[in-house]
Amino acid sequence: MLWQTSRFSIDLSEPRVMGIVNATPDSFSDGGRHGSTAGALRHCEQLLKDGAHILDIGGESTRPGSPAVPLDEELTRVMPLVRDAVSLGAPVSVDTYKPEVMRAVLDLGADIVNDIWALRQPGAAQVVASHPQCGVCLMHMHRDPQTMQAAPMQGDVVRQVLLFLQQSALDLQALGVKNTRIVLDPGIGFGKTPEQNFALLAHQPALLRAGYPLLAGWSRKSSLGAATGLAVEQRMVPSVAAAVLAVERGASVVRVHDVRETVSALAVWSAMQRER
Hints:
globular; 276 residues; alpha/beta; TIM Barrel; 8-stranded parallel beta sheet; single chain
């Protein structure tokens, strides 16, 4: 199975690790640590040394309650970094929902649009459709970052997420985007209770019925804190465990902060798989 992106056809026959690069001052886990372009680029280089297969650059925090970032500010944060990161020899994803940012980074050579809104913002789907090779990750989010945890989802979360993602992918294909460019993300923590998030993990194989590869983003999420009682900076081990469980249940890509530890854990999982 291949994920077609702007410059790379990513082989998903083995699990792939997407390293998180937050070019923000206020992300829930590492906001401000890589605020300068030089610092963020060094972080990109370190993630690749640690074994990351994909870099995911974001210029706006989407933690619960986070305010929206003005367009000019997001462009200022991500454009210089993307311009440098595309020279590192690995696929570059940009975490954004603004069509203007999508267009700008794709024109710089970015490979993937990773959108928490699943291209529901006006003009976003058209930008992706107009770049005939770029990859896209469509994520499920209930409500918006400002209100999603104030009134989480109700009802059968697995069925609702599956139907939403299926329809989002079909809508994008109707614009001419090939299915090989599309990956789906159930949106762990985006408008869901801890119980619902763990239900999505437990029943994750049901999401594969949509017919697309899955990306799982559990890294340092509050549900792991709810299960363990650990503060966000102490959640490396639970994050790695969740990543392995997600891969065991069919995820092709895991989006993580702790790349080296996740890569090592997945090497053990892969060794076991080879002997089955």
